[in-house]
């Protein structure tokens, strides 16, 4: 593991000059067609503005100049994704519960093999960086060994994650179930080892898969852990499909609704991340707002499993903390660029403002993971997590002149949302340190 001191010594103060776009809030953007992002030797942003306004302050600062077709944006935040589902993303099944049985549980069982766990962890965590994702909230498997390997890999690659061992003690194949007391001891041990590790880049989460695979004893034990470790996250699924909700009603007949199952055991609060929440009623949304929980909206996954339509505008209007999630493997790919587009297309009758989609993929996600005070945009004092995008220049031929599309911010953002693609990611930085650079494409 690289020590924080070693990382700092690799850095010098730099100014990144080019087109810069970032979100200041749900409806507010800042754009500089010729801008500068100033980052100090510790990877902290000292200023962001137009080149003209900042150029006289740059004596002794190394300037990195980007091209007219390139764009600098904050790193993307994936608020819900499964590391062990990388190899089965895009495998179709008729419903959530059948998809789990047909594809997911068998794949997750393979993580008993440490070599396989190591290979997929390396692949997944590298791919996050290649997709411009600088912070992700991640489910693992129920194996403590594979979980340990995933944390070690994240520390080595420099990922920012909120991550935890996935906990199941009922209603899954025996190979993935573990005795309740053993699970609670294992997850507490992993938490003590990894929460706050790698200079704060790694945060731990308690991760009960969902109510159906959790005994009351397990949820009660997690409620106790939440009280003992108040700054640790809890990440789970809520109200994704109607058949799932019916099964929850049957399994927990005392609960008035799905939300009450988690509420009863003290699992809901400001460090709770709830994936999906598609079929929540008004009263459940109001209770989640009062409890200050965060929601992760995963439209690509919701399309894939035909889960239903998330009440995006109702959630925004209630000002719940909300981010976007790729939900790989029910989501087909890790790119938050395509998730933004799917979030737009998911709303049949409402045009979601482009600025709001961009906010949700960056600052909103950071706020949903309670890290908006130090990540998510380019306000001075925040840590420099950012992505450099190559926007396609057409036509791509040495015999024809380049055509540069409009540099107007609204046009740029619209292209980003509707045409954005993983291949546009050129470089990814976390705390001022480059963690990904696309290999050069050799052309004739
Ligand atoms: Zn999920």
Number of domain units: 2
Biggest β-sheet, characterized? Answer: 9 strands, parallel
CATH architecture of the largest domain: Alpha-Beta Barrel
Rounded radius of gyration (Å): 22 Å
CATH topology of the largest domain: TIM Barrel
Number of helices: 16
In total, the number of strands is 17
| Uncertain regions spanning at least 5 consecutive residues | 1-10
Shape: globular
- The overall average pLDDT, rounded, is 93
Strand content: 15-25%
Bound molecules: zinc ion
Fraction of helical residues: 25-40%
CATH superfamily of the largest domain: Metal-dependent hydrolases
Question: What structural class do you assign from the helix and strand content?
Answer: alpha/beta
Span of the ends, CA to CA:
40 Å
CATH class membership of the largest domain: Alpha Beta
Describe what this molecule looks like in 3D:
With 444 residues, this protein is of the alpha/beta class. The chain has two domains: 4-74 and 377-437, Urease, subunit C, domain 1 (Roll); 76-368, Metal-dependent hydrolases (TIM Barrel). The chain has helices at 4-9, 51-54, 96-109, 114-130, 144-157, 180-194, 216-228, 242-251, 258-264, 282-291, 299-304, 312-317, 336-346, 354-361, 363-368, 409-419, and strands at residues 14-25, 28-39, 45-50, 62-65, 70-74, 76-82, 133-139, 161-164, 166-167, 202-208, 233-238, 272-276, 294-297, 321-324, 386-390, 425-430, 433-437. The strands form two sheets. Strands 6, 7, 8, 9, 10, 11, 12, 13 and 14 form a nine-stranded parallel β-sheet that branches. Strands 1, 2, 3, 4, 5, 15, 16 and 17 form an eight-stranded mixed β-sheet that branches. The longest helix has 17 residues, at 114-130. The model is unreliable at 1-10 (pLDDT under 50). Bound molecules: zinc ion. Zinc ion binds next to strand 6.
């Amino acid at each position: 593991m690289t020590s924080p001191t070693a990382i700092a010594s690799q850095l010098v103060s730099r100014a990144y000059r080019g087109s810069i776009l970032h979100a200041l809030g749900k409806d507010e953007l800042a754009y500089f067609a010729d801008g500068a992002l100033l980052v100090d030797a510790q990877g902290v942003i000292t200023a962001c503005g137009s080149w003209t306004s900042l150029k006289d302050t740059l004596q002794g600062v190394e300037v990195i100049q980007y091209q007219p077709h390139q764009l600098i944006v904050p790193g993307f935040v994936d608020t819900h994704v499964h590391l062990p589902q990388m190899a089965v993303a895009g495998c179709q099944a008729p419903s959530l519960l059948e998809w789990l049985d047909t594809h997911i549980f068998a794949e997750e069982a393979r993580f008993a093999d440490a070599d396989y766990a190591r290979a997929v962890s390396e692949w997944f965590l590298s791919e996050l960086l290649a997709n411009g994702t600088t912070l992700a909230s991640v489910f693992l498997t129920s194996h403590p060994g594979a979980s340990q390997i995933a944390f070690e890999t994240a520390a080595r690659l420099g990922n920012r994650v909120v991550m935890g061992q996935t906990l199941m003690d009922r209603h899954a194949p025996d190979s993935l179930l573990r005795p309740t007391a053993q699970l609670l001891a294992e997850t507490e041990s992993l938490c003590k080892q990894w929460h706050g590790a790698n200079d704060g880049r790694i945060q731990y989460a308690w991760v009960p898969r969902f109510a159906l695979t959790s005994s009351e004893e397990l949820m009660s034990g997690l409620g106790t852990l939440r009280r003992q470790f108040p700054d640790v996250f809890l990440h789970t699924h809520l109200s994704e499909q109607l058949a799932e909700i019916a099964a929850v009603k049957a399994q927990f007949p005392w609960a008035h609704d799905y939300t009450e199952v988690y509420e009863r055991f003290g699992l809901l609060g400001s460090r709770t991340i709830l994936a999906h929440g598609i079929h929540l009623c008004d009263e459940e949304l109001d209770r989640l707002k009062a409890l200050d929980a965060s929601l992760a909206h995963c439209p690509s996954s919701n399309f894939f499993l035909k889960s239903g339509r998330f009440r995006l505008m109702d959630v925004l209007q209630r000002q719940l903390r909300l981010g976007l999630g790729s939900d790989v493997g029910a989501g087909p790919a890790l790119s938050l660029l395509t998730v933004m587009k799917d979030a737009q297309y998911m709303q049949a009758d409402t045009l979601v403002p482009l600025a709001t989609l961009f906010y949700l993929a960056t600052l909103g996600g950071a706020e949903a993971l309670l890290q908006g005070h130090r990540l998510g945009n380019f306000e001075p004092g925040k840590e420099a997590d950012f992505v450099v995008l190559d926007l396609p220049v057409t036509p791509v031929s040495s015999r024809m002149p380049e055509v540069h599309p409009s540099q107007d911010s609204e046009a740029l953002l619209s292209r980003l949302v509707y045409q954005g693609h993983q291949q546009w990611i050129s470089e990814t930085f976390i705390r001022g340190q480059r963690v990904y650079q696309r290999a050069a494409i050799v052309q004739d």
